[in-house]
Amino acid sequence: MGGKENKKLFALVGRNISYSFSKGYFTKKFEDLKLEENEYVNFDIQSIKELPKKIKENKNNLKGMNVTIPYKLEVFNYLDKIDKKALKVGAVNTIRISKKGKLKGFNTDVYGFKKSLKPLLEKHHKKALILGTGGASKAVAYVLEELGIKYKFVSRSPEGKKEISYNDLSKGIIEAYQIIVNCTPLGTYPNIDDCPNIPYENVTSKHLLYDLIYNPSETTFLKKGKEKGAIIKNGLEMLEQQAEKAWRIWNK
Prior knowledge:
The chain is of the alpha/beta class and about 250 residues long. About 30% of the residues lie in helices and about 20% in strands. It has two domains: about 100 residues, Leucine Dehydrogenase, chain A, domain 1 (Rossmann fold, 3-Layer(aba) Sandwich); about 130 residues, NAD(P)-binding Rossmann-like Domain (Rossmann fold, 3-Layer(aba) Sandwich), CATH 3.40.50.720. The protein has a six-stranded mixed β-sheet with strand order 2-1-3-5-6-4, sandwiched between helices. The longest helix has 15 residues. The radius of gyration is 19 Å and the shape is elongated. Pathway: Metabolic intermediate biosynthesis; chorismate biosynthesis; chorismate from D-erythrose 4-phosphate and phosphoenolpyruvate: step 4/7. Pfam families: Shikimate_dh_N.
């Protein structure tokens, strides 16, 4: 094992992230690639204001960071540069640190979602409902736009033209919008019986239900879709793809 000065540190920035996917994924990746000088840790902070201190404490070794809920937007104020795509999405989930200590933000959720969604799309998939309006939903919307799929956000307190409320989800809307993407945390372990409040009885085999949650691998949202014959997909591949993209960015 090399000395401390050779250590390359990568970190996940978030709040209450002990369960995090990233740490497990990269720790295994470093073992598989025999990168013994690489280490992945969690920066579990209660406020984004604590970030500069964390960076300062690790400044000689820190090479890159992932960012998760709830800091994908708040982190903008702490970056020196932001990639065009991340700026357009309005969320950063990957940060590369230059040799001079400059921080540049990227969004790899876009890549991960697109890569995992595209193989499932069929000709009739022309409209999508995005459940939730947080950071991840912005990346989802960006991808749908790129693919020429019209979408609406579904929110508990809708604002503006692009958003509708859960109460607006009529039979007609569910029939017209044949992609439904869950970007809410509803149904995540341990609360696995929870699910977004949509009229599942109107879901058909023409639908594609995609859940950003990966734990459990089949949420109640997905189960209910599967019962109706819909195509279903969880968020694991999206996470793996966005992690691989982050790895490429850090090693550029």
